[in-house]
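# step 3/5: fold
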Amino acid sequence: MIRRLLLILALLALSGCHGSGRNGAANVDRDRLLSADSEPGEWLANGRDWRGAYYSPLDQISRTSANRLGFAWAYDLGSARGLEATPVVVDGVMYTSGNWGRVYALDAATGKQLWTFVPEVDGQYARYACCDVVNRGVAIWQGMVYVGALDGWLYGLDAKTGKVVWKSDTFIERQMKHPAAISGAPQVAGDVVVIGQGGADFADGRGYVSAYDLKTGALRWRFFSVPGDPAKPFEHPELAMAAKTWAKNSNWRSGGGGTPYDGLAYDPELDLLYVGTGNASPYAWKDRSPGGGDNLFLASILAIHPKTGRLAWYYQEVPGEQWDYTATQKMILADLTIGGRKRQVLMQAPKDGFFYVLDRKTGALISAKPFVAQNWSLGFDAAGRPKINPAVDYEHGPALIYPSSAGGHNWQPMSFDPQTGLVYVPVIQASMIMAKGYDLKGRTLADRWAVNGVFVDDYPPEGVPEYGLPPLARVLAGRTPPKREGFLEAWDPAAGRVVWKQPTPSFWDGGVLSTGGGLVVQGDETGMLNVRDARTGALLKQIDTGSSIMAAPMTYSVKGVQYVAVMAGFGGGPGWAFPPNSAAYKYGNEGRILVFRLDGAAAPRPAPFVEPPMPEPPRRIGTPQQIAAGGKLFAAQCARCHANVPRGLVPDLLMMGPETHKAFDDIVLRGQRLPAGMGRFDDILSPADAQAIHAYLIDEATKAWDARQKGRGPGARPVTQRAR
């Protein structure tokens, strides 16, 4: 009997059964991903399985039992920055990532910490993180955990211990000439792990994805999403074709953009890797490519053969991109019946406001319908190419455009429920005014390349003449653009229409989970975890967590108990400042993993935030001319993070104390606070520039101090003229 048992155990080990990966942990492989529905309690990848639908068949928590959902456990991440990852659960262990590229392994039933990994990150790269030092998740494969750190290092970790097996530098150079940062999740594709990077919101950003050997970390191939200087050899053949869509006298030193910071997917059946590329750099089309052109492969979906790194097909969603529209949003791979025919499709709802359904084998456009109000496109031609509305070109003056640069849908994952046939999209409805603005004077790292993009809701009625922004009424010319608001929208991808939509508290709420229990789950800015009926959108349960939520929830089961988990922490592009109605504003931004189950307790909320008293600012310095110059420099170089943040992710510069004022130059020019993510700016700011900015901030702080002393509220604050 014992010999027979030993033989069975040996055969199981040889068969590669689950749990027999490296050191017996996290054994995810191709067969397991393809048969994920046979293990409904597991969540094996960011979107649960290879399809990336953020859907689980689990149904213990259902329409009829959702009212019993309560708190199970929480894990404090010791962070006050934005959290955007969705945890992965494999064989009872939860793996997830946090700020900078940290990784956490926890017991999925109890929250007990098994190990953590904290990369040594060069804080200077936080300066090139468009939207906080966030990270969108890990990849798990055959006993390994893969994560990208903010400063461009890709790590392969032992899933059992968290120890580094290998690390690879994913950046093409380390001289900081080409701004880049990693915020997205890696994607395993065949026998390689692939990662992209951000940076196109800054000058000199050029996009590429890199593929590495799963076991050793050796570079296998690299695919650039835009061509480089044609005077130099092309890195791969596809760039010769792409270069024909750029003017020969293009601003090649600008990098071009197209950074694929997130939105990777892989079809193991077709053996195709899908890469969504980003926005242009610089934004203004004629500054980038004076002769026009589609500028491939900006704002495109690329299908790449992962064995060779060669292109199978591409589809460009926004030819000649100049509105900060990206195609980096999560893609869902599904099989849909359209027109009586079953199709293998790729679905994406990117920033530009159209819901795209493509044949994922060929790249042929099946449908593109607006899921939110838009005015940049006049439709599509017979070849599936968008027709650009000439009215949204801001080359010769401000233009009204929608969706805004925040997108009709941003990075927050959408979800596809195969039971209802609906895709649940966290929708942003907003409009913006874009205009060419101030002179950069050769400052190659200033973000947005002298283009102002302002939400119409935030646009000063009188305009801002010094930045080329005329009065609002003149720009609108009698038009009434959509106001800024958010929705959870149920979209029928086969019919191309909205089935239902529900308003959300803000335009910057969380990603979405759908389940076999007929539920749609989404967190929001106010700290509510909302559970809705997937067929109608009716609210079934609301849990007040006390923590603002951006990330998509997920669900899993351990020993017959279904759990719902979500990472809670506010941040991202519009999340630099905490809105007064947000949980982050009321309770602070304590980063947590929150987990719920049936018949759980009430969710514990953090202690209310207590605002410290404002320090009295030092005596004003500088002349009125210096203060005015400092205001312009602040808007160009600092406002992206530090504007309008009485409570937010980064320090409120009106609240600087004596020691901070004393160390101002050391912080701004010499990198005193690099470990906290405050980069040094001595490459683009002179000592005189830093002094002017300091004078401006002291002047603004004095105005605020005087207003408070007179009982008139918080007083003046530095403002930005750009929407994020």
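# step 4/5: annotate
The two ends are 67 Å apart (CA to CA).
# step 5/5: archive (pending)
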